[in-house]
Amino acid sequence: MIVELLSGKGYAVNSAVDGLAARAHVAASLPELVILDLMLPKVSGFELLAEWRANSRTSAIPIFVLTSKDLTKQEKSYLQEHAQSLFLKQESWQEGLVKQLQRAVGKPQVAKA
């Protein structure tokens, strides 16, 4: 759904099937921004966020968290400190995510034929 939404707005989007694939993709390509789910198979989003923030190469990457997880107060506090934005799947998140994305990386450039 995210790939379809953002591709439709003109953004180039890559996705990962699990936490291991996300870790490998970020290490290989150093993306402009990461949209992270917290409940990933193999490696949790919390683990990835901690790793990326601890690594000087990836510490400045804007990370948006999009999750359906019921967050504790401690988890919310951690995410507010280490992620740029937090979106809950059970709320209306699409418009807010696109607006924050545009602020973080700008609007996509449309190639002219």
Secondary-structure map:
Layout lengths: L1 H7 L10 H11 L4 E3 L8 H10 L8 E5 L5 H10 L2 E4 L5 H12 L8
Parallel strand pairs: 1-2, 2-3
Characterise the protein shown here:
- The protein has 5 helices and 3 strands; from the N terminus they run H-H-E-H-E-H-E-H.
- With 113 residues, the protein is mainly alpha-helical.
- The model has no long low-confidence stretch (mean pLDDT 91).
The rounded distance between the terminal residues' Cα atoms is 28 Å
SSE series: HHEHEHEH
Shape: globular
For the biggest β-sheet, the strand order reads: 1-2-3
What percentage of amino acids are in beta strands?
5-15%
List keywords for this structure.
113 residues; mainly alpha; 5 helices
Please sum up the structure shown:
The protein is mainly alpha-helical. It is built from five helices and three strands.
